[in-house]
Amino acid sequence: MLLFVVLFSDYVEAQDTEELPSPKAAFLRSLAVPGWGHYYTDNENWDRGKYYLAGEAVLVLSYFGLDARADYLENDFRTLALSKAGADLAGKPRGYLIAIGNFDDLAAYNDAQLRSRNWDAIYPETAEYQWSWESNDLRNQYRNTRERVDRNRSQLPTLLALMVTNRLVSGLSAFVQARNKWENVPEAGFSYHNEFGEPGITAKIRFSF
Question: In angstroms, rounded to a whole number, what is the distance separating the alpha carbons of residues 207 and 33?
């Protein structure tokens, strides 16, 4: 009987701990792919992990969608500036791109800077910096498109921050779920005295729910 109790106690502890998920491994998995840690902890009941995984998919698709949209719009306004204002934006600073949307031509822009005594903002009167819009409507179209690019790109850091947050929260959730598995391990033990304090062998198994 004594041999049975000792072997049974060791068997329960060894079998349960070998099959239990590692909280650290669960955290790292969800840090890499949200929801993976929940699946690793309990692949039959990982509904919470599915929400984190779905949230990650939405964020990733939104990020690449906005980035692709910004690239498309940027190509659009650069083409518009070249074809309708004669301005080549390649290699030009951001201030130049903004100036083209606010003034009809280089002369009007430089004149405004001279009157404001903003000497450092003046561009040279060379062919490289010349532009002249065919109409105000085209200039406004260019400006609106360029501003849409800025708005789209300004949202990208926020989406990245949300992705990092989603991974951290998913990792912590998976860690807690795996740790709870360890806390609910059945404990087996034995005693040489029974519950009345008399000599004898008493086996005990405790489950936590």
Answer: 32
Show the tokens assigned to 189. 């033990």
Model-level pTM?
A: 0.72
- The pair of three-digit structure tokens given for residue 113, joined into one six-digit string: 């800077």
**78-120 pLDDT tens trace:** 999 999 999 999 999 999 999 999 999 999 999 999 999 999 9
CA distance 31 to 172: 9
Work out the number of other CB atoms within 10 angstroms of the CB of residue 84: 18
**Cβ-contact 181, 25 below 8 angstroms:** no
* Amino acid present at 97: L
Beta bridge partners of 188: 205
Q: How many residues does the chain have?
A: 209
What are 146-165's pLDDT values in tens digits? 999 999 999 999 999 999 99
Q: At what angle do helices 94-102 and 136-154 cross, to 10 degrees?
A: 140
How far, in Å, CA of 91 to CA of 100, rounded?
A: 14
Nearest-angstrom CA–CA distance, 36 and 84: 52
